[in-house]
Design brief:
The protein is α/β, with parallel strands linked by helices and 389 residues long. The chain has two domains: 253 residues, Rossmann fold, CATH 3.40.50.1100; 116 residues, Rossmann fold (3-Layer(aba) Sandwich). The chain contains 16 helices and eleven strands. A seven-stranded mixed beta sheet has the order 1-10-9-8-11-3-2, with helices on both faces. Helix 13 packs across helix 14. The two termini are 13 Å apart. The structure holds pyridoxal-5'-phosphate. Pyridoxal-5'-phosphate (PLP) binds next to helix 5 and helix 10.
Length: 389
């Protein structure tokens, strides 16, 4: 069981002014089956660990998709269709996209994407909601059950023999070859920025909800990162809604085998760096080797710490969430979903990490928030992990 923490080597420069397109919240209010997901305060666990609060926002309950990812996919897809149809993208409602005329435009588009599971499932679901088409590719080693979830939503999905970065390149070429094809990727690079920005803005509904659900602002937020678009979406929402001096301490958490933000902070030359090879981790959603170009600058300027955890720490966190103390809520959390909680759980329960605990100022005044970003999206592995001790 290992974990690591480093302080940011970069200057803390939180941006001024509103960042996120303010229509995200109104758009979601117009989506028929949109519901706020639960926020659980684990009171008994917080007491045991001598901190004020441990809050877990449960995205396993989002849209019946078992993960937060659909929040980005639906919003970005809606924006693409609205632009093509000449609608006002700043005041878009779900209903505007349901007229026969707009549905016909939507039906002429095919959205291509690469995924390790949750993003592709969100895209397949969004395509179904908006009467358009999706084609999904997965990297080697992806679980068949995750591909099947995508196919069940009507999108063709293949598990390729490419690693994540290469499957993104392959899918991008596939989209270019289709005259009606559009790449809808949850990662930005070069001049591919607009759709990933909409995806990250769509995710921000998660933070908007938990800030409304919490009675006080959090003092600490731990965010698990793959390419970092989830983290940057949460950070942008926090910056938009909380005065600068009250912003929580932000820690980015990654699997130790594929920690591109941690690596970039360690190299400390201000650039984003790629983890080489074909790394392995049970945290499939976080198995991303390169930071997203839109997320790196936001995270670099606002994260105070970068952390890593081993797979067994993540598994222990999953078991802790599934076996609560007393009347704390039971939370079903998958490998990537539990990562941020698992990191916190280990430093608060293992006396060897007292130094890290002190460095993070996790004392009796700490109001911690983490997001359970997925449920048991790989049920066989979930059961296996539950049986281990
Ligand atoms: C469950 C889960 N959590 C977190 C993430 C990380 O999101 P990002 O790649 O935007 O950092 C992912 C990405 O796929 C995911 O599936």
């Amino acid at each position: 069981m290992t974990l690591q923490l480093i302080k940011t080597p970069f200057e803390y420069k939180v941006r001024e002014g509103k960042i996120i397109n303010p229509d995200v919240i109104d758009f979601y209010k117009s989506v028929p089956n949109y519901r706020t997901t639960p926020l659980y305060s684990l009171k008994n666990l917080a007491k045991k660990y001598h901190v004020a609060q441990i809050n877990v926002k449960d995205e396993s309950k989002r849209f019946g998709l078992e993960a937060f990812k659909g929040t980005g996919g639906l919003y970005a897809m809606a924006q693409v269709i609205a632009k093509k149809a000449g609608l006002d993208t700043k005041k878009l409602t779900y209903q505007q996209l349901q007229t026969p005329e707009i549905k016909k435009i939507a039906a002429s588009i095919t959205f291509y994407t690469a995924t390790d599971g949750n993003h592709g499932r969100g895209i397949a679901w969004a395509a179904k909601q908006l009467s358009t088409h999706a084609v999904v590719n997965m990297p080697k080693g992806s679980q068949e059950i995750r591909a099947q979830h995508i196919r069940d939503l009507g999108a063709p999905c293949v598990i390729t023999d490419l690693n994540y970065d290469d499957v993104v390149k392959y899918t991008s070429e596939q989209a270019k070859k289709d005259s009606n094809g559009i790449l809808i990727q949850d990662m930005a690079w070069g001049d591919y920025m607009e759709i990933p920005t909409d995806i990250s803005d769509g995710y921000s509904i998660v933070a908007d909800e938990f800030l409304k659900q919490m009675n006080q602002t959090p003092t600490h937020i731990f965010l698990q990162a793959g390419v970092g678009q989830f983290s940057s979406g949460m950070i942008n929402a926090l910056i938009d809604q909380i005065p600068k001096e009250k912003l929580p301490i932000i820690t980015i958490v990654e699997p130790e085998t594929v920690a591109c933000y941690y690596l970039s902070a360690k190299i400390a030359d201000g650039k984003a760096h790629t983890v080489p090879g074909s790394p392995k981790t049970i945290m499939a959603g976080l198995n991303c080797q390169t930071p997203s170009a839109i997320s790196w600058p936001i995270i670099k300027d606002s994260a105070k710490f970068y952390a890593t955890l081993s797979d067994d720490v993540a598994a222990k966190g999953m078991r802790q969430l599934a076996n609560p103390i007393g009347d704390d809520s039971k939370i079903i959390s998958g490998e990537s979903g539990a990562a941020a909680f698992a990191f916190v759980n280990e430093i608060l329960s293992n006396p060897n990490y007292q130094g890290i605990r002190n460095e993070l100022k996790l004392d009796e005044n700490a109001r911690i928030i983490v997001v359970n970003t997925e449920g048991a999206t790989d049920p066989i592995n979930y059961q296996k992990i539950m049986k281990e001790s």
